[in-house]
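Subject: for your reference before the review

Hello V.,

The reviewers asked for a structural picture of the protein, and I figured it would be easier to keep everything in one thread rather than splitting it across files. Below is the amino acid sequence we used in the manuscript, unchanged from the supplementary table.
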Amino acid sequence: MTPYEAPLADMRFVLGELAGLEEVAALPGLGEATPDLVDAVLEEAGRFGAEVLAPLNRVGDSEGCVFENGVVRTPSGFRDAYARFVEGGWNGVPLSPDYGGQGLPWLVSTAVSEIWNAANLSFALCPMLTQGAVELLSAHGSPEQKALYLPKLVEGTWNGTMNLTEPQAGSDLARLSTRAVRDDGLYRITGQKIFITYGEHDFTENIIHMVLARTADAPPGIKGISLFIVPKFLVNADGSLGPRNDVRCVSIEHKLGINASPTATLSFGDDGGAVGYLVGGENQGIQCMFFMMNNARLAVGLEGVAVGERAYQQARAYARERVQGRALGDGGDAPVTIDHHPDVRRMLLSMKAQVEATRSLAYYVAAAIDMAKHHPDEEVRRQKQAFADLMTPVVKAWSSDAGIDIANTGIQIHGGMGYIEETGAAQLLRDARIAAIYEGTNGIQANDLMGRKVAREKGVTIKAFIETMRGLDGELASVPEGDVAVIRARLGLAIDALEKATDWAVETYPSDQRAVAAGAVDFLRLFGIVSGGWLMAKGALAAHAKLAAGDGDGRFLKGRLASARYFADHLLSQAPMLHVAVTEGAAAVLAVDEEQF
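And here is what came back from the structure prediction:
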């Protein structure tokens, strides 16, 4: 497997030119995120990812986790790597200094998290969920719960999990059956949860489970779900650990990928009921859990970016070394490396462009979250939060789909060697595949986008963003020829297609929700391509200006222009076709009888 190297040049470019790091660092409470500090953080994260986490990636895949007598052992080296991760303070990068975190912007943390995911996706899942649990408790926990749990969670000596799924209730949480019985100020939890990432392991001294359950008199459906803290070991008032709680791991899954990440089945209450502590109020569990779920959805989108980057690096290295065939059109007989062949060059540019576009969008949305949390103007905070809510399903689904496509292309570039496990290309595809499924399948994300985020809001937030994207046209017009001019033309047509599809969805939804749902996946892809293409166009404009001024690394900037042009020609050009699929594609989908499948 090709050694991983953090793509610091592109990260810095996206942070500075596209995501607005300078503007984010000017927000109250984020002033320590100076360029020098951010550079130092990224450099050190890159070293840790390359030297500590990446070498374990293949080890974790081949060894997997071992489950014996209720105990899970992670693969060789993982426990020590996690201890070094905690010792370095990496778990608390974006978390509140009030509880021991570093308080850096989510924008910076997003770049750091990309490194963890690219270096070792299975490892990165543990701190990702812990950060989500911290966000949840920070928003909805009582003062006592925050004081008791947050310091250890922020530090990373305890980790958090998310317990939603049950055997009979996957994404349909209305069918959830885990029970919570009131017992003298606390609750006794009974039931079973499946697919719990890091539900049992040997990294931390305690595991803090966030569990959805129903009280006996709760109303039916999702309105009757409550959220509970269920620690593996009970926690005394002074923060020390008490006796083992009544929650046990009964098995771990054997999976297609992410084999070093234990996916547990947990049984609650086999011996009288696991002690649980209510978060928020009864029947408010879904509202509370959405804080953790949305955090996880953005993180899953980032996994697509990260695995795509790792697959691109590996395919690029192989294409530079693999000698096969003659170069077309040069008249020579000498064999050349395969990166000379037009189709391989096309595939490499496809990988590069998609990585850059998904990275740009993930970072841009992270900056909006920082604005929503810290901007002094309440109306700006509201608008930025609405934008982040709108974009969460896009980042999750479009980026994770792209990660799968990029990893698949990586195998193709390797040819037969890509099908051999030793190269590592196959692992990347296997690891990437889950991202389109968990934290709500990408189809569910598309329905959420079309229904809740676009149609029910009558397109207010997305139309405001469309106007923002149109505002770039004047700047692009200042470069009347060459790549930037072509990108401008492609982007304009793509934005038109998105706007027409949005108008159709808003108009159609009240009378025909099924037709809108049938086009939802295509709409999300359309939105991802256009928003990613807009950021690629901004990047192309910045790269062109720097090249004209003789500022920066010319080779890198020319590469950025090339990938932006590729994105415009090969992806933005799909927008009109996707508009047709959105607005007319329901005809066949809804006409077919179930027996005709």
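For the response letter, the relevant points are probably these. Residues 143 and 265 are 31 Å apart (CA to CA). The chain has three domains: 8-155, 158-283, 442-597.

Happy to draft the paragraph if you're swamped.

O.
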